[in-house]
Amino acid sequence: MRALRLTDWHSEPELGDLPEPDPGPGQVLVRIQAAGACHSDLHLMDDFDSGDLPFDPPFTIGHENAGRVEATGAGVEGLDEGTPVAVYGPWGCGRCHRCRKGMENYCERQGQVHAGGLGSDGGMADLMLVPDARLLVPLEGLEPVQAAPLTDAGLTPYHAIARSLPKLGPGSTTVVIGIGGLGHMAVQILKAVCDTRIVAVDTRDEALQLAEDIGADHTVKAGEDAADEILEHAQGRGADLVLDVVGADATMSLASQVVRPLSDLTVIGIGGGHLDFSFFALPYEVSLATTYWGSVTELMEVLELARRGHIEAQVQRFDLDHATDAYRAMREGELQGRAVIVPN
Length: 344
Hints:
Number of strands: 18
Structural class: alpha/beta
Order of helices and strands: EEEHEEEHEEEEHEHEHEHEHEEHEHE
CATH superfamily of the largest domain: Medium-chain alcohol dehydrogenases, catalytic domain
Largest sheet: 7 strands, mixed
Distance between the termini: 12 Å
CATH class of the largest domain: Alpha Beta
Shape: globular
């Protein structure tokens, strides 16, 4: 089978051939029909050395995956061959308190289990071996190309928004910084689950137009006047939630300038930025947090929002033979929404 492999740190992935996996007890083999390309993959290619992470190459990349059940190992029940499924991305031990609650993204044994596409073989391949049936969610009518990005680009902002929902009633303001793969999903999720005023921020005119088309109340071009414009849209009071989907120095600084007391500043982008924190660095009772993916039950909720037509990933398709073109376009800021790799 074909697979897009990261063979070493500081290198581009390479398309090669691997033997087809054979599912063992409890395992499920999924024929991949769609795999999302994430900016996190670029960090894997560019930013790490041996010892920085609890795993090393080689492995197949791709941690946003959907397809159909190809085969099951002994003991797997309720997943017939051909069943369309999404793959829950963050793999935990499955036994600790957090995992038993469906929150494998915060597994108490992180580092001992490596997720598909993040240390273990992922889905940019014809086939993907999933270690346990609990990590699969039936699509129930969703197309795999639409579902694959929802497993991260949809789930990650959904979790970040859900933890702040009590603050997002009528009259509130939410700022989304970065309208890319995750950011354009965040705008739609906010529109679907609450009545907050949505202010979208980006450096690109086409991204701001996309944000307006999918439900943002206001758009702001990133720059020296951005903070003043955001505060004006927020009635001068500041934002109740800022979702920084970039996580760079400049975006975190902007976020700190527009939050109001008792608000949340949540960073879900891994752009390597820093924010100096002290007693007077932020308004009183601003909660500063990072989040990582979401729970499997939250993924079920995200898929239901898509099933009911409330959210839809904007995708650009690439076949597996040209998957590296998707990453080149991502590096150059040419993607609109999410790139999805379609093996066949």
